[in-house]
Design a protein that fits this description.
single chain, about 190 residues, mainly alpha
């Protein structure tokens, strides 16, 4: 007599110690929560930094030239981009590694949060780093010729920027391959 369907294999129940260990390991994800709270405090520091730099720009507006205004604005953009990076890490990291935020349906929910995972988060962080690096590189190009900027400084900033770009491309490629592999296995 042959069976066309297989019955599921029965495994013995895990010992209590194993269940407790699994629970402890799963619960340990909450150790990251204070880290995300610390990043929120850091976000407050960046808000203060932004307002301070903005205030300095406003009170010096009649005494600075266009180049100094451009550098100040790039500094403000840099602070905003770092703050955006922090938000991605705080929200995306918490959602991915600690617990669901349970904000489904909220009108202000970021679009990217609905499909965030570790791979997507890495690619988003890498592209944010490219943006921040671009701002720093642009500031360096504007300051070229001053005593603070040497050829070595420009060279190494370009190398670092290109490293960020290459890393982002490789992360995106790796994420694409792993996504295709997961879809292939599912079919």
């Amino acid at each position: 007599m042959s069976h066309d369907t297989q019955t599921p294999r029965q495994f013995p129940e895990a010992p209590t110690f194993v269940k407790m260990m699994a629970s402890l390991i799963f619960f340990s994800r909450w150790l990251q929560a204070p880290l995300y709270l610390g990043l929120i405090v850091t976000q407050c520091v960046y808000v203060y930094q932004f307002l301070h730099e903005l205030w300095l720009l406003i009170i010096q507006i009649g005494n600075i030239d266009e180049k100094q205004i451009m550098l100040a604005v790039l500094g403000l953009i840099d602070v905003v981009m770092i703050a955006n990076l922090l938000i991605m890490v705080i929200i995306g990291g918490y959602e991915t590694f600690v617990s669901r935020l349970r904000i489904g349906g909220h009108p202000d929910q970021p679009e990217w949060l609905s499909h965030v995972n570790a791979g997507v988060l890495k690619v988003k962080l890498a592209t944010a780093l490219i943006g921040i690096s671009s701002i720093h590189l642009l500031k360096t190009f504007i300051e070229m010729g001053s005593a603070n900027v040497t050829t070595d400084t420009v060279f190494w900033q370009v190398v670092i920027h290109l490293t960020f770009v290459l890393s982002a491309i490789l992360l995106a490629f790796t994420d694409k391959i792993s996504t295709q592999t997961s879809q292939f296995k599912a079919t």
